[in-house]
Design brief:
This protein is mainly α. The protein has eight helices and no strands. α2 crosses α7 and α6 runs antiparallel to α8. The radius of gyration is 21 Å and the shape is globular.
């Protein structure tokens, strides 16, 4: 079964890259022209979201460099220790709604220090998979289409992130302790 899944995963993307143009051709769609038009729209969107990306990256840098994250970690540490969460994963939990690449770096460092099969490594991986970069998503997607009022989206996204965090903690404590 594993050999079959390995072969499927090796051929999935090439098959998609072959099948989509073939399907478009069969439907009489000018495939190349549609591709170029989509690439042009993508470029316009990318240029449009640059100010939002820069603003978010500056805010994250200021948050970390000011020491605010360290103070927040210290404040939340007793609460999460009481529910079976090591303090080492708190920066990951705090940064996850803000930045995917920053959290990937934090998770990589945790796994380098504690190992991927440690409780901390497994919890970091589970947290990565069950939460999202809420502010990044809102900044990019809402900024690119010009949505100005997204108050309820922030509340909903952060509620989902907290739920994912708590579910990760519960599942890892049940399965890996």
């Amino acid at each position: 079964m594993i050999d079959f899944l390995t072969q499927v995963s090796k051929w999935a993307i090439p098959l998609i890259l072959i099948c989509i143009p073939l399907y478009g051709s069969l439907k009489k769609v000018p495939v190349y022209e549609a591709f170029v038009e989509g690439a042009e729209e993508g470029f316009v969107t990318a240029v449009k979201i640059i100010p939002f990306l820069v603003g978010m990256m500056v805010a994250i840098s200021v948050f970390r460099a000011s020491g605010a994250m360290d103070h927040l970690v210290k404040a939340l540490s007793p609460l999460l220790t009481a529910i079976g969460t090591p303090a080492e994963v708190l920066p990951l939990a705090i940064m996850r709604p803000l930045s995917g690449s920053g959290v990937l770096g934090l998770a990589t460092e945790l796994m380098r220090v504690y190992g991927p099969d440690s409780f901390i490594g497994r919890l970091a991986s589970t947290m990565q998979g069950s939460t999202d970069t809420t502010f990044f998503v809102l900044t990019i997607y809402f900024g690119s289409v010009g949505v100005k009022r997204y108050r309820y989206s922030i509340v909903t996204g952060l509620t989902a992130d907290i739920s994912g965090l708590l579910a990760s903690i519960y599942i890892c404590n049940v399965l890996f302790r």
